[in-house]
Amino acid sequence: MTVKTFKEEYQHWLDSPALSEAEWQELKAIENDDKEIEARFFAPLEFGTAGLRGEMAVGLHRMNVHIIRHATQAFANVIKAEGPEACEKGVAIAYDCRVNSELFAREATGVMAANGIKVRITDGMRPTPELSFAVIKYGTTAGLNITASHNPKEYNGYKVYWSDGAQLPPHYAEAIAAEMEKTDIFNGIKLMPFDEAVKSGMVTVMGGETDEAFLECVLGQAIDKAVVAKVADDLKIVYTPFHGAGRVLVPEALHRLGIKHLYPVEEQMVPDGTFPTVTSPNPENPEGFYLAIDLANKLGSDLIIGTDPDSDRIGVMVRDETGGFVPISGNQMGVLLLDYIITARKATGTMPANPMVAKSIVTTEMARVVCEANGVRIDDTFTGFKFLAEQINKLQSDGSYQYILAYEESYGYMMGDYVRDKDAVTAAVVIAEMAAHYYSKGMTLKQAMDALYEKYGAFAEKTINLVMPGLDGLKNMKAIMADLRKDPPKTMGGEDVMRMRDYQDGSVFVTGLGKVETLEMKGSNVLYFELGDGTSFIVRPSGTEPKIKIYILARGASMDECRDKVAKFEAYAESLKR
User: Fold this and answer.
1) Distance CA 107, CA 89 (A)
2) What is the CA radius of gyration of the chain?
3) Which one of 258, 326, 494, 562 is CB 3.0 to 4.6 Å from 556, fit for a cystine?
4) Please, is 26 exposed, middle or buried when counting C-beta atoms within 10 Å of its C-beta (0-12, 13-18, 19+)?
5) In a 3-state reduction of DSSP, which class is residue 160?
6) Which residues of 155-187 are buried (b: 16+ CB within 10 A; e: fewer)?
7) pLDDT tens for residues 294-317?
8) Nearest alpha carbon to residue 465 among 454, 457, 473, 456
9) C-alpha span between 34 and 9 (Å, rounded)
10) What whole-number distance in Å separates Cα of residue 544 and Cα of residue 463?
11) Nearest-CA neighbor of 317 among 244, 224, 240?
């Protein structure tokens, strides 16, 4: 296919009869703005294992109905290549609360049906983990969720799953990307209106029956319901879905667990893809919890739970010794869950004979200390639950190990074999049970975390986001990674760099010696620096947002020492931004 310049691509879109009048007017309005035209048309959105994600607008490098149709046609071609049985098994489709999510899901349904592929679509917005569950439960060939997860309101996305319920394996993502390259975005698409697709019998609607089956599995992850019953008359939990898909199933799951006093933030229970009450619907950002904190203070609650718009990530705020609220970080929550699951399963006799845990390479090493102290295997993978799921499946396939938890520092947790992605619905249940356990001992989750530092040692972590929007930002991100590879720093923040692991080609470099070995794990754009004081400094570009993410993992003799290390390297990380 001939590669067009951004101006030629812009004109191709302007000339297409596929555009609506409103879309044409939107493009016509930027005809004298070369920078904006280039930003929208310099290249397609890159299709990867996480699918597509971008800002919503008309253009090749934006999310809109034409990109949705194009990606879905390519996806359909890959499914059809698997044979007639794959088309019959079909695809499960869901969507979240975002602007255009339902429209995009219906457009994708029409393209799949027009290609002879059966579709199961949810009757409204649903959590991402329920989509993963539906793929496994109904045995579909693939899954698709229209969501941009925790991104700002301007974004939407196209998250793709394969038959194991996990996000797309790399070779299938590459196949879809290749199909997109050779398919004309306007003329190469098979289309069928959504209503016609439903009438044709190609579409089945998923509703309450799927919710019930999912909730049954979610409640099956409760380890000790008795501890919840013990404190149910007194324990108060405030919950916010940040206007998103967790608004029904998370409260229902918690009520079925036995939580009597659950108080939703009513303003944020309203589905709204413009997220009117928050700047960002990301539970990693404590400032988004201001309404929940007001409610918790009014009610006298010590615990707040929040889920992002597609309910795959979960954040928790707890009252500290000053009476204010502080966040439990993703790393801390993973360690809290890990220690609780091990302790509760041993106490209830439900620990598997050969338990294992999976975490990403950017997640706290405190998890390793907890596992080693308790005789539990722990494995590292690249960032992304598709990699965690792949490792779990590999170790469980012959029955030699059974996983009890998989998690990432970015507020994602997975338990059970009915999903293969991060799952805030299940995490909410186990977190509430864990909170009840500590409440029965007179402890908050903050106090519980402090006790774990006493037990396992002092650790501190920090994730820094170097945001670089636009085309210039993309170039800067590539330049930063290239420069770090070409001329690795010998010191960082005043500490010697001892080793650098380059997970792109698997090379390991030792300062003064050069390349010394090759890693078994490779194929991901990650640089991992091991520093003289024991700190890890990890750099990788985000796969879904215009930013470089830097992870600082520190360990020390005390929490003050750990915090000092983090502060020192945080300042160094900020110096990398251009």
Assistant:
1) 19
2) 24
3) 562
4) middle
5) strand
6) bbbbbbbbbebbbbeeebbebbbebbeebebbe
7) 999 999 999 999 999 999 999 999
8) 473
9) 13
10) 16
11) 240
Q: Which residue has the tokens 């009915």?
A: 418
> Whole-prediction pTM value?
0.95
Backbone angles phi, psi at 112, to 5 degrees: -60, -45
Do the beta carbons of residue 134 and residue 209 sit within 8 Å?
Answer: no
CA 57 – CA 65 distance, rounded (Å): 10
Q: Both tokens of residue 376? A: 């539990």
| Average pLDDT along the chain, 578 residues, taken 10 residues at a time | 85 96 98 96 89 96 98 98 98 98 98 98 98 98 96 95 94 95 95 96 97 98 98 98 98 98 98 95 95 98 97 97 96 98 97 97 97 98 93 91 97 97 98 98 97 97 91 88 92 94 93 82 93 96 86 96 94 88
For the chain, the helix, strand and coil percentages under 3-state DSSP, each to the nearest 5: 40, 20, 35
Report the pLDDT value the prediction gives residue 542, as an integer from 0 to 100: 85
Residues 161, 210: Cα–Cα separation, whole Å: 18
Six-digit token string for 329: 């970080």
State whether residue 191 is helix, strand or coil: coil
Query: What is the DSSP secondary structure assignment for residue 329, as one 8-state letter?
Result: P
Identity of the amino acid at 60: L
Instruction: Let me know: does 41 contact 10? Beta carbons within 8 Å.
Output: yes
Tokens standing for residue 556:
């020390």
Q: Give the 3-state secondary structure of residue 300.
A: coil
Catalytic residues: 149
Which tens digit of pLDDT belongs to each residue from 137-179? 999 999 999 999 999 999 999 999 999 999 998 899 999 999 9
- The whole-angstrom separation of Cα 2 and Cα 232 is 65
Count of Cβ atoms closer than 10 Å to residue 276 Cβ? 11
DSSP secondary structure of 527-575: EEEEETTS-EEEEEE-SSSSEEEEEEEEEESSHHHHHHHHHHHHHHHHT
**In this structure, what are the phi and psi dihedrals at residue 367, rounded to the nearest 5 degrees?**
-60, -35
Rounded to an integer, what distance in angstroms lies between the CA atom of residue 62 and that of residue 41? Answer: 8
Cβ atoms of residues 456 and 370 within 8 Å = yes
Residue 237 in 3-state DSSP? strand
